[in-house]
Automatic annotation (TrEMBL):
Domain ABC transmembrane type-2: start-end pairs: 28-257
Stretches that traverse the bilayer: 21-42, 62-83, 115-139, 145-169, 181-203, 236-254
Stated name of the protein: ABC-2 type transporter
Assigned keywords, A-Z: Membrane, Transmembrane, Transmembrane helix
PANTHER family: NODULATION PROTEIN J
Cited Pfam families: ABC2_membrane
The species this protein was found in: Methanothrix harundinacea (strain 6Ac)
Organism phylogeny: Archaea, Methanobacteriati, Methanobacteriota, Stenosarchaea group, Methanomicrobia
GO terms of molecular function: ABC-type transporter activity
InterPro entries: ABC2_TM (IPR013525), ABC2_TM_bact-type (IPR047817), ABC_2_transport (IPR000412), Nod_factor_ABC_transporter (IPR051784)
GO cellular component, one term: ATP-binding cassette (ABC) transporter complex
Length: 270
């Protein structure tokens, strides 16, 4: 256990040093994040009460709705890009092969290498919420425990999809369809920018096949309306089911990808 903690700390420290070597980019991302929030704040002013019937289940305020959407959808982006980009970066630096011949399990290496990305994503979510509160979003009745449970399950689900994406990159190097498929469908059908009830009923079926839908729905109810765990049971149950399917599938896929790349001698090719 202590050895795993030391490895995790080493990966985080390494990623932090790399990130801080590009300080301008780091602060530029935070700067534009603030402008992104302001954009939706004024869009919400423009919309006013026009979409009230669709937003009523979430408290009726569009800015609060979309703030949660753009904040927590960041975890999907980190998961999809983080794992595959980590594999690709290590390939380009020539360190992937050396890392995979160490006693540390391959799945542990790919997971630990993205820890910093999730830490930074969590920092961004916190900033989103703080700025949102300063702009009038009310989180006074938030059920923090329920939100943390949903967040944990969300990270597990999204990370599994990210590992599947990394497995594809490991074998085929380019043209990852998993990344493109989940990025595009989740933003459109996952309820990031608008309630899925706006969609035609036949398209809502697509929404119900995505973890993003249950994650954002549960997070909004927990943070904006203080739903109890019992009331959030449908969202939590769906995320548990997704996790039970995606976690073993992603780990098997990644181990197969590593084994295939080693056998073909393409581990360092990119």
């Amino acid at each position: 256990m202590f050895a795993t903690y030391r490895k995790a700390l080493s990966f985080v420290k390494r990623s932090y040093i790399l990130q801080m070597s590009y300080k301008f980019e780091f602060f530029l991302r935070l700067f534009f994040m603030f402008f992104n929030i302001l954009t939706y704040y004024f869009v919400a002013k423009l919309i006013g009460t026009a979409g009230m019937k669709y937003l009523e289940p979430y408290g009726g305020d569009y800015f609060s709705f979309v703030l949660i959407g753009i904040a927590f959808s960041g975890y999907l982006m980190v998961s999809l890009r983080g794992f595959s980009e980590s594999v690709r970066d290590e390939q380009m630096m020539g360190t992937l092969e050396a890392m995979l011949v160490t006693p540390t399990d391959a799945s542990a290496i790919i997971t630990l290498s993205t820890l910093w990305s999730f830490i930074f994503a969590s920092f961004r979510v916190l900033l989103y919420l703080v700025i949102g509160v300063l702009l009038g979003v009310s989180l006074a009745g938030a059920n923090v425990l329920a939100a943390l449970i949903i967040l944990g399950l969300t990270i597990v689900c999204f990370s599994s999809i990210g590992i599947l994406s990394a497995s594809f990159i490991m074998i085929f190097k380019r043209g990852d369809p998993i990344n493109m498929l989940f990025m595009s469908t989740s933003e459109l059908f996952g309820g990031v920018f608008f309630p899925i009830s706006v969609l035609p009923s036949w398209l809502q079926t697509v929404s119900h096949l995505l973890p993003m839908t249950y994650s954002l729905n549960g997070m909004r109810h927990a943070l904006l309306q203080g739903y109890t765990l019992r009331e959030l049971a449908p969202e939590i149950g769906a995320l548990v089911l997704f996790s039970a399917i995606l976690v073993p599938a992603s780990l098997l896929a990644f181990r197969y990808a590593v084994r295939k790349a080693k056998m073909e001698g393409t581990l360092v090719h990119y």
